[in-house]
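User: As part of a screening pipeline, I want to sanity-check one entry by hand. Below is the sequence and the SMILES for adenosine-5'-triphosphate. Please return the complex as structure tokens so I can compare it with the automated output.
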Amino acid sequence: MTTMIELKNVSKQYKEVKAVDRLNLKIKKGEIFGLLGPNGAGKSTTIHMLLGLTEPTEGEVYVGGIHATTRPIEVKKRVGFLPDDVGFYEDMTGLENLLLTARLNGLKEDMAKERALSLLKQVGLEDAANKKAGEYSRGMRQRLGLADVLMKDPEVVILDEPTLGIDPKGIQEFLKMIRTLSKEKKLTVLLSSHQLHQVQQICDRVGLFVKGKLLAQGDMESLQKQLFDDYSVQYKVEIGTTSQNPEEELNKIPGVQSVVPQSDGTYIIDLKQADNGELARFIIEKGYRLFSLEKVSYGLNEIYQRYFQGGETLGSS
Ligand SMILES: Nc1ncnc2c1ncn2[C@@H]1O[C@H](COP(=O)(O)OP(=O)(O)OP(=O)(O)O)[C@@H](O)[C@H]1O
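Assistant: Here is the complex for your manual check:
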């Protein structure tokens, strides 16, 4: 599949600060990639290099196969950028703002209006099309920003902390919209955020960024494998038994690493490998009643915690 964004061994040095340190990253067409990291991790610097706004000290940056440093104008034509706070002409309506963007991008007037109205509908601003942008709420501005970015029909959309300041319901709607638009239009999306649960919701892949370094990247499962060197699979079971010491018996399950009783009466069983039905069979053969059995997976939350706690050592490898 076509690679739309590629960073090859990219570093950016600001005097004494190394904002980005030997970053290698490939994002495929149609993919939603989340660049996740705390403030100061280097996310904005990376985005600015992709947009050709700042040059890397070392390495190469390509967007749609175009060298971002030497051909920034061509990159700009293909990339839509949504900063965390979009600037609009406050006295102009949402529709007028979009039409202005269309003119600046050389779109024909009739086509521009058709596209603007269609986009306003897609981002749920149909009823606010003729309202002044200055009267839009924060969430509405971001949605108008997304429509504005899509006016020039970009192949790549870059969103820098797009949900800052939006209320929780607005965030859900906004993220869902990005996902739908990306999948419908085969848009490649790079989204920066320090909000892990948001990234988790819509991204196909996530890159964990700290102190200019990409510590790990991949989908949830591969992140788990990369970050949890003692990778294991955990199951939560709820059983009924008259046995005096079920914990000891559960410890005899083949491949078991640990059995930890929980305060709610359930057990967390840690296995070396994913269960293939053995767990339930063992429990039933022991004569226990099995009320429930569920796989416990590490969420991005745990991964994030772990990466902050162990960030130094993970990053230095
Ligand atoms: N123009 C600049 N001159 C000097 N240092 C800079 C400049 N821009 C960024 N930095 C430094 O580079 C590092 C990375 O900053 P960057 O803004 O890329 O991080 P970030 O992950 O986007 O964080 P935030 O979410 O706070 O914007 C920080 O230490 C920052 O102080």
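Points to compare against the pipeline: Confidence is low (pLDDT under 50) at residues 310-317. The chain has twelve helices and 14 strands.
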